[in-house]
Specification:
The chain contains 7 helices and 11 strands. It is α/β, with parallel strands linked by helices. The chain has a single domain, classed as Vaccinia Virus protein VP39 (Rossmann fold, 3-Layer(aba) Sandwich), CATH 3.40.50.150. The strands form 2 sheets. It has a 9-stranded mixed sheet, with helices on both faces. A two-stranded antiparallel ribbon has the order 3-4. β3 and β4 form a beta hairpin. α2 crosses α3 and α5 packs across α6. The chain starts with 6 loop residues before the first strand and ends with a strand. It binds S-adenosylmethionine. S-adenosylmethionine binds next to α1 and β10.
């Protein structure tokens, strides 16, 4: 990773359905979306042996039809702002990934290049003891191929700069990635219930962009995409609607809290 390449980062505070509308068509090289799962309950489930409680965030509560409508709307806008030859990566659990895949493949008619299984070797135990223990999340990689342009895949980088127990360095990277849950060290800037590991985002950016490209994350959360994009010399646009996460994003994208960034331009926009 290198932090010295000058890059530009915009953070929008507001609802992505509204803000995506303001982004010009075909202006984005890569979209990384980690949307609501639609699995939250008003009261999360906990158990005596662990501090872990299932998700009870307001932003994850939807009606069944409301969830489908929401997913169609933001994906539609993402496809509009994506350049031809650009990639759309969407991640989720079994609760939402099939619906997202249906919309991307059937309604938007994009080409799906891969589905990746993210295996979490240290996943949380199952609280109810009535199901197998969930230890994976799923990522869909689709591309918008038009006007004679096709997706970027930095094949040599994927071979040489990605490795884990299932993917030896120097070999082709498989579509199963072994990455532990986000470490405490990466959570230094504050608590977000679904903060993703930087390594997960790094692999996507490494494979599908080049330096100077622009990456959009419509569900920025704790700012992982912007922080990793900055370290890798890519530009980013992030959107987050919960005020409580903004301070985490700001700390992560500008850890030294510099007033003027010599290597980076950062703009915070309240909508
Ligand atoms: C699954 S989390 C993303 C976590 C992120 N990948 C990270 O590493 O921190 C989804 C985020 O989307 C935000 N969100 C939900 N609905 C939104 C909307 N309509 N517009 C913008 N942000 C939204 C939530 O507040 C939450 O922080």
């Amino acid at each position: 990773m290198c932090g010295w390449v000058k890059s530009k980062h915009k953070i929008f505070y507001g609802d992505c359905l509204y803000i995506l509308n303001k982004i010009p068509s075909e202006s984005i090289d890569l979209i990384i979306a980690d949307p609501p799962y639609g699995l939250a309950k008003k009261k999360g489930l906990g158990w005596a042996y662990s501090k872990h409680v299932t998700l009870e965030e307001e932003w994850d509560l939807f009606s069944k039809d409301g969830f489908f409508k929401f997913n169609k709307e933001w994906i539609n806008e993402c496809v509009r702002v994506l350049k031809h030859g650009g990639s759309l990566w969407v991640m989720g659990s079994f609760h939402n990934i099939y619906q997202l895949g249906f919309i991307i493949q059937h309604i938007m008619d994009l080409k799906i290049n891969n589905s990746i299984v993210w295996f979490k070797p240290n996943a949380q135990p199952n609280i109810t003891c009535r199901f197998f223990t969930e230890s994976t999340e799923h990522l869909i990689w689709a591309s918008k191929n038009g006007e004679g342009k096709k997706w970027i895949f930095n094949y040599e980088d994927t071979k040489n700069k990605i490795s884990d127990d299932l993917n030896p360095k120097g070999k082709q990277t498989r579509n199963v990635w072994k990455i532990p849950l986000t470490t405490k060290k990466e959570k230094w800037a504050g608590h977000h219930p679904t903060q993703k590991p930087e390594e997960l985002i790094r692999r996507i950016i490494l494979a599908c962009t080049n330096k100077g490209d622009t990456i959009l994350d419509p569900f920025l959360g704790s700012g992982t995409t912007s922080a990793v994009a900055k370290n890798m010399g890519r530009n980013s646009i992030g959107i987050e609607k919960e005020r409580k996460y903004l301070s985490i994003i700001k700390k992560r994208i500008n850890p030294l809290q510099k007033k003027i960034n010599e290597d980076t331009e950062i703009e915070y926009i309240n909508v």
